[in-house]
C-alpha cells in the first residue's frame, strides 16, 4: 500500500509544482488586470500581454486535466535495476532541490493570494535614490533643445533638472506635479518624488525634483519642511526657476495634500 501511495503523492506534488502554481498565478494576474491593480506590478503596455498569457495557461490547464495523474512523469519504459541504483543518489539530490524550490514558489504564490496589492514603499524609493542615475523617459530631450513640457511628469522634469545644458530656457515654465514627499540632501530641502518603471516594478527607479521651502512659518502658497511628513502624497502647482548657478527648482504656488493615486507610478 505504501508503494502505491508514494507514486500518487509524488504525482500530485509534481502537478502542483507545475500546473497548480501556474494556474494560481494566472488567476491572480487576471484578477488584478480586471480590477486595474496590475499596474502596481507592470507597465500598462504589458498588461494585455500578461493577461493573454494567463488565458493561454488556463486553457492549457483545462486540457491537461484530461491526462491521467502521473502521466507527465511516465517515460513509457523501464531503466532497469542497475541503472536505477546508479542514479539513486542523483535523484535524491534532485528531489531535495525540487522540494526546496517548490516550498519557496508556493510561499510566493500564497503571499500573492493573501497579501493585498501595494505600491513600492517610500523607504525603497529613498534607498534606491543614491544607487541609481537619472535614467527616465525624456532623458535625451534637454540635449536636443527645449521641448514641450506641458505633458512632463516628475520623471521627465527630473531628467531636465539633471541634464539640461540650457537651464535658463526652462525658467518660468509652469508645472503641476504629483508625487510623495522625501527629504533632500539638506535639512531644509524637500523633494517631490515618484517611482518610474519601464516594464515592471523590478526596474523601478525613483525620480525626484527639488521644491523650494519656506524657512519660516508656512503660509498660503508656501511650503515648509514640517508641513508634510515623508511619504505624504501631494500635488504641487508652481513655476520652474533657474538659479544663478544653473540649478533648477520648483517654486510652489500651491501645495495640496492628496491620497495615493490609483496608479502611483510614472512610465
Write the SSE topology.
Layout: H1 2-35, H2 47-64, H3 81-114, H4 122-129, H5 154-163, E1 174-183, E2 190-196, E3 205-211, E4 233-242, E5 248-257, E6 265-266
Parallel strand pairs: 2-6
Antiparallel strand pairs: 1-2, 1-4, 2-3, 4-5
Helix pairs in contact: 1-2, 1-3
InterPro entries: DUF1980, DUF1980_C, UPF0703_membrane_permease
Protein name: TIGR03943 family protein
Pfam families: DUF1980_C
Supply the helix-strand structural class.
alpha+beta
Kindly, what is the distance between the CA atoms of the first and last residues, rounded to a whole number of angstroms?
Answer: 58 Å
**How do the SSEs run, as a string of H and E?**
HHHHHEEEEEE
Helix content: 25-40%
Ranges where pLDDT stays below 50 over 5 or more residues in a row are 131-144, 215-221
CATH architecture of the largest domain: Beta Barrel
Q: Could you tell me the radius of gyration in angstroms?
A: 27 Å
Q: What CATH first level of the largest domain would be assigned?
A: Mainly Beta
Strand coverage percent: 15-25%
* Secondary structure tally, helices: 5
CATH homologous superfamily title of the largest domain: Nucleic acid-binding proteins
Q: Sum up the overall morphology in one term.
A: elongated
Mean pLDDT: 75
CATH topology of the largest domain: OB fold (Dihydrolipoamide Acetyltransferase, E2P)
Give the strand tally.
6
Number of domains: 2
- What characterizes the major β-sheet? 6 strands, mixed
Amino acid at each position: 500500500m505504501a508503494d502505491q501511495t508514494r507514486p500518487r503523492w509524488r504525482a500530485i506534488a509534481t502537478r502542483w509544482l507545475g500546473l497548480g502554481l501556474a494556474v494560481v498565478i494566472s488567476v491572480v494576474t487576471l484578477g488584478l488586470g480586471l480590477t486595474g491593480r496590475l499596474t502596481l506590478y507592470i507597465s500598462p503596455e504589458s498588461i494585455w500581454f500578461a493577461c493573454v498569457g494567463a488565458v493561454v495557461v488556463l486553457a492549457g490547464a483545462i486540457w491537461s486535466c484530461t491526462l491521467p495523474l502521473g502521466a507527465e512523469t511516465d517515460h513509457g519504459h523501464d531503466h532497469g535495476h542497475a541503472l536505477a541504483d546508479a542514479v539513486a543518489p542523483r535523484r535524491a539530490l534532485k528531489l531535495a532541490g525540487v522540494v526546496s524550490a517548490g516550498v519557496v514558489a508556493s510561499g510566493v504564490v500564497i503571499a500573492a493570494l493573501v497579501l493585498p496589492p501595494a505600491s513600492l514603499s517610500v523607504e525603497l524609493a529613498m534607498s534606491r535614490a543614491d544607487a541609481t542615475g537619472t535614467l527616465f523617459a525624456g532623458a535625451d530631450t534637454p540635449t536636443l533643445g527645449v521641448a514641450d513640457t506641458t505633458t512632463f511628469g516628475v520623471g521627465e522634469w527630473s531628467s531636465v533638472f539633471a541634464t539640461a545644458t540650457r537651464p535658463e530656457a526652462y525658467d518660468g515654465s509652469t508645472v503641476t506635479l504629483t508625487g510623495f514627499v522625501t527629504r533632500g540632501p539638506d535639512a531644509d530641502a524637500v523633494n517631490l518624488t515618484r517611482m518610474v518603471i519601464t516594464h515592471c516594478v523590478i526596474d523601478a527607479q525613483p525620480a525626484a525634483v527639488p521644491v523650494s521651502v519656506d524657512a519660516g512659518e508656512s503660509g498660503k502658497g508656501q511650503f515648509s519642511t514640517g508641513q508634510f511628513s515623508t511619504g505624504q502624497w501631494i500635488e504641487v502647482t508652481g513655476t520652474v526657476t533657474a538659479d544663478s548657478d544653473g540649478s533648477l527648482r520648483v517654486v510652489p504656488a500651491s501645495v495640496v495634500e492628496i491620497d495615493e493615486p490609483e496608479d502611483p507610478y510614472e512610465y
